[in-house]
Amino acid sequence: MAIKLEISEEKEVYRSSYFPEYVRPKIYDPGLDETIKRLTPEKIEKAYQAVFGKETARIKAIVETCIHCGLCAEACQWYLSNDRDPTYAPVAKVKMTAWELMKRKGKVDAGLVYDIARIVFTECNICHRCSLYCPFGLDITFIIGLVRRFCFLLGVVPQRMFDQNQTFMATANQVWMSQSDYIDTLFWREEEGMYELKNLRIPMDKEGVEVVWFPLAAEPKTGPYHIDRIAKIFQVAGVDWTMVTMNDYWDSSNMPMFIRDFFTMQRIVKGLYENAARLRAKKLVLTE
Amino acid sequence: MGYKEIPFEVMHPGEFYYELLVSGRLKIDPAKKIKEPVTLHDPCNVIRRAGAAEKFRYIVEQTCEDFREMYPNREHNFCCNAGGGLSSLVQWYSHEARGNRVKAEQIMATGAKIVIVPCHNCTTGIKSIINYYKLPVKTMFFDELLVNTMYIPEEMLPEEG
Amino acid sequence: MGFLESVALYNFLRGPMVWITFIIFIVGSIYRIYTLINLAKKEKVVLPFINIKAAIKSWLHWLIPFASRNWRLKPYFTTFTFLFHTGIVFVPIFLYAHNALWYESWGISWWTLSETVADVWSIFVIIGCLFFIGRRIFDPTVRFVTSYSDFVFVFICLFTFLTGFLAHYQWILPYRAMLNLHIMFGEIMLIAIPLTRLTHMYYFFFTRAWMASQTAIWKIKDW
Prior knowledge:
The structure holds 3 protein chains of 3 kinds.
Chain A: E1 13-15, E2 23-25, H1 30-33, H2 41-52, H3 57-65, H4 77-81, H5 90-103, H6 110-122, H7 129-133, H8 140-154, H9 159-171, H10 179-193, E3 211-214, H11 218-222, H12 225-237, E4 241-243, H13 262-278, E5 283-286
Parallel strand pairs in A: 3-4, 3-5
Antiparallel strand pairs in A: 1-2
Helix pairs in contact in A: 2-8, 5-8, 6-8, 10-12
Chain B: E1 9-11, H1 13-22, E2 34-40, H2 44-48, H3 53-63, E3 64-68, H4 93-98, H5 101-110, E4 114-116, H6 120-133, E5 138-140, H7 142-149
Parallel strand pairs in B: 2-3, 2-4, 4-5
Helix pairs in contact in B: 1-3
Chain C: H1 2-5, H2 7-14, H3 16-42, H4 52-63, H5 69-73, H6 75-94, H7 96-106, H8 115-138, H9 140-145, H10 148-169, H11 175-195, H12 200-217
Helix pairs in contact in C: 2-11, 3-11, 4-12, 6-8, 8-10, 10-11
């Protein structure tokens, strides 16, 4: 965590041309600032039609039930942390994104798309807390997810998120780790762990086991100690377990979900599912 | 919500560790228990969307002597602010940390020295809060917690030298 | 002032307008509920996951004051909103004067509220309306998301109850004029229920059921 926080501590202020209340520090992100230059009104409208064009029960119920009471605001940590700034309230986020799009029927310019992308990608964690506080139980995060999908179709996504998605497309894990690197790491951790626990084993692709453990890709890459810790716990408890190395589908994180790239998302889930089914596992333990 | 019937259980390690502890397959060494005050962060994905809150509390109570709850807790916890893909956005780290002052206040209110964060994503978020607000706490995973406190049988220990 | 007091307006509001209102209200409500359920059928992920038991629990917890966490966090809001919403539903149904009208028209009547209770409850509804308006004006969070239609909804309710209350005590305007206004606003309110976001009266049960079922799958409580 040697990230220099001062980098982004910029004094410049970004003011939305649509919502005078929406004032934020300026943060440069090529994924947002550069991609909006490519947008045309036709593209935006097409993406809008693809996501919001068809009337569905969930969108209809949410939009027609919300009575703008603002009770969800107290649930959002962004709102509470920023001195109750009205623009951070969940309902305000929905107002500035989905309602604005629906009100204008998708006929908006790139400036609004920037605001929208900034709100849905960097100011909402999809934590579902607001839904527990809404008197109507509206699934606010569902709307945020739809808007994320809209932004993804336009390619207006924070650079790192988009980059990770492409990593997933190419390698099915988030850190560009090849199969051989992965197997190598497992052997190395096995060897290291043996000094602390006798005969430590990290089984690979063992069939008919009790537990299949899928790590997060960052574990073999940046936090390899997790692997031998897990191995030690399982060994001491006498669990019959295995890790998967075949077919590349071993990373249990699913970053494409965050930008609603359904295709890659499905590929990953399906890959993990098939791997586990092939090994006839009873339990699937995903990483912490 | 895609697959309604899955031929195997999908679990978080915390839930699995809970099973191991309850069934007695994994034993905790009372001498090794963590003495420092700890608190537990409830990750949204596992608590709010899988209801594992009580299981996690069981693990923590078994392994730590001084467990302090954050308030609000369980399904009403605050998010770590790294969820929804924010954990990977390096350019936005200070923005992200500023947006989660409540979590920092929550952690400080407990007076704990260790925050147990059973989620990689949340660890990123909590660490960025710790760095930004200079909190005197450290994060810990369940695996670290269990490796440090579990009872290891004699025959499993390696020979000296 | 002459027109408001006229018997012609009164006859129109009491005659054809009542029929139109009730037809729009009943047919519109059924239509709204039916279309929503029909749309939900097309989405494969909605109906198979509805869990009635969880939904009933969730309804109860949110329909009883202070039974859910958010109600407890906002005691003033909860008090006003419950007085307001129960008042707006039950006072018109159980008011003695309204019952007399039913009796006149169709010869049916039922249990009625005593005059004091009805008066106090109406005053609470009016106070609730003022509270909501105040919230929409003075709370920055709510002000930011408020649109004009939100004010219109509250004002419709406010005027309906205010005119009804004033007509009963025959203050400010002559009785006939106030009564005409009262009937007019009441009819506007009933028409508005199926046509505007006031449908949250029905949709509450659907959206709550959906969230309750989802949280039931997640094994947590949503109150």
